[in-house]
Amino acid sequence: MSFLKRGTLLRVKSKFFLLSAVILLVGLGGVNSGENQVLFFFSMILAAVGVSGFFSKRNVERIGVELVPPQRAFCCEETLVKLVLKNPHFYPRFAIWIKKGRKDVFAGDIDKTKEIVLRQVFRKRGYNSFPEITLWSEFPLGLVIRGKTINFKEKILVYPRLYNVKPYFPEELIGEGEDKPSQLGNEEVHYVKEVEEAEPRKIYWKGFARTGKLLEKVLGGSFGERIVVALDPYGSGLIFEEKISLIASLGYFLWKNHIFHFIFAGEFQGEVNEKNFDKFMATLALLKPGTREESAHLSSLIKTHFPNSNIFIASCFEDSPLKSLKGARELVFVK
To answer: Which of 42, 131, 183, 207 is the most exposed place for a label (fewest CB within 10 A)?
Structure first.
C-alpha cells in the first residue's frame, strides 16, 4: 500500500501488517495474563514499528539533488546523465534508492556527496526535461518506505539523431579528402563577417589590423570541386525532422572524412569542423520550419555566392525554390 502527496511517498510493506497483527496478539496476551515481561516485549515491538517510519522519513528528507547535463545528448540514443546527491547533515544517510520510471537504482549510503549515473533516451530534439525521480528509503527495519519526488527545472539540449549512413557523392567530388589540391586553391573572398573565433587561414588580417575586430573571410566563386549542401527551411512535419537528422549526419560525415564543403542549415553557414560541431548541432536542434520566402532567399544567396559549386539540397516539397537552382541535386544516402 502506497500514498503519494505533495511530493512525498509513504509505502507500508506487507510485513508491517503481519508484525502489527503479532503486536496486537502479544498486547492482548499481556493484558489478559498480567505478565510484565509480556507487556515489556509488547512495548519494545511497538516502539520498533514507530521508529521505523520516523527514521525512514528522516533518512531521505533534505537530501539535495543536482542534475549535471551531459556534454552531448543525441535524439533516440541512450544518454548518461549524472545526478549529484548532497547530504547537508554531518551524519550520513543510509541505503538510499532512486526510482526513475519503473526502475530502481541503489545509491547506497551518502556521507556528504555522491554521484549517480542514470540512463535516459530522449525522443525529440531540442530542449527536453529530465523525468522526475523519487528518493526513497526503508531504513532501518524495512517495514515502512518513505520518499520524496523531485522535479528538475534544468533543460537538456538534445541534438538531432545521427544516422549510420553516408551520402552518395560522385567520386570526382570527394577525391582523396583534405589533401586534394583543388581544395587548397581557387578560392575567392566574397565578403567578411565578424566572428568570435576563426581558423588562421580564414582570418581577414587587414581588417583585423584596421578595426581590431576578428573578421572571417567567406569564400565563394571558383571553388573547384567544393560541395555545397543546403537544408531547405521550407518544410514541416516528420519529413522536415528526417531532413534535419540527415543534414546532421552529413555534417558529421564530411567533417570526419575531411571533405571540402560548405553547409547552409538555418543560422549555421560554413564548414563543419571540430571547433564548431556543437554549434552546428545546437542550431539544428533548435531549428524550426520556415517559409517558402525564406527558401527563395536562400536560393538567391547560393546562386550569388556559389555559382560554380556542386549543390546538393535536402528539401521537403516539390515546389521548393532551391530546386530551381541550376545543377542542384537532391541528397541521396546509402547504408
So the answer is: 131
309 within 8 A of 260, measured Cβ to Cβ:
no
Which residue has cell 545543377?
327
What is the per-residue pLDDT across 47-79, written as a single tens digit (0 to 9) for each?
666 666 677 777 888 899 999 999 999 999 999
Q: What pLDDT was estimated at residue 118?
A: 95
How far is residue 4's CA from residue 292's CA, in Å, rounded to a whole number?
51
**DSSP per-residue letters across 7-41:** TEEEEE-HHHHHHHHHHHHHHHHHHHH--HHHHHH
| Separation between Cα atoms, residue 317 and residue 240, nearest integer Å | 10
Distance between CA atoms of 155 and 282, rounded to whole angstroms?
14
Torsion of CA 194, 199, 202, 204, to 10 degrees: 50
Predicted structure pTM score: 0.72
pLDDT digits (tens, 9 = 90+) for 130-185: 999 999 888 776 667 788 889 999 999 999 999 987 788 776 665 544 333 333 33
Report CA-CA distances (Å) from 263 to 209, 268, 317.
Answer: 29, 7, 20
Residue ranges of domains in the chain = 1-158, 166-187+222-334
Query: Cα–Cα distances in Å, from 294 out to 88, 123, 321, 327?
Result: 54, 28, 9, 20
CATH number of 1-158: 2.60.40.10
